[in-house]
Amino acid sequence: MFTGIVEKTAKVVKIEKENTNYHFTLTVDFADELGIDQSMAHDGCCLTVVKVDKEKKQYVVTAMDETMLKTNLGTWQVGTEVNVERSMRMDGRFDGHIVQGHVDQTAICTKVVDDHGSWRFYFEYAYDAEKKNITVPKGSISINGVSLTVVDSEPGMFSVAIIPYTFQVTNFHNFQPGTVVNIEFDVFGKYVQRLLEQYMNAAK
Known about the structure:
Elongation Factor Tu (Ef-tu), domain 3; 2 domains
């Protein structure tokens, strides 16, 4: 479980393929604090640490084929900057919103607008009426693991506003039209949708 408050950006330094699995080696300044089997969010995708090199401040995570197909990990290259967050602590304040690290799908950045002090980012995604993968104005959304508030909202499209701090410390500063990102819809919204479906089906 995560909060969507990105700790740092890590950099991909090596990619190896083994059968249908991909092993990603990344470097980040707190790598020497990591342990094997630890869960970490990478651009919002929960991956398990399988190896740590404390001297080089590097670690390795493995992604299987399903993860590669459902997320933006297939676009990663050596040098790619990745938002990372270690799992939530339960002994402090809860910032952001509940993020599971289970990416629902990818979205594409379609427009970046400079609002003279902040930025508005617009995204489009494949809308599925049956899945009801929707956003709502002022609702929560996770983009590459960053907890954000939805501004504009339509089926298959939404926008978010980014303050300078978030722009600088996350990989949002690399986004441009065409950038593929991971999105996770609000978990509470998913439960509400499922309960409403069950209620409507029972009422028929």
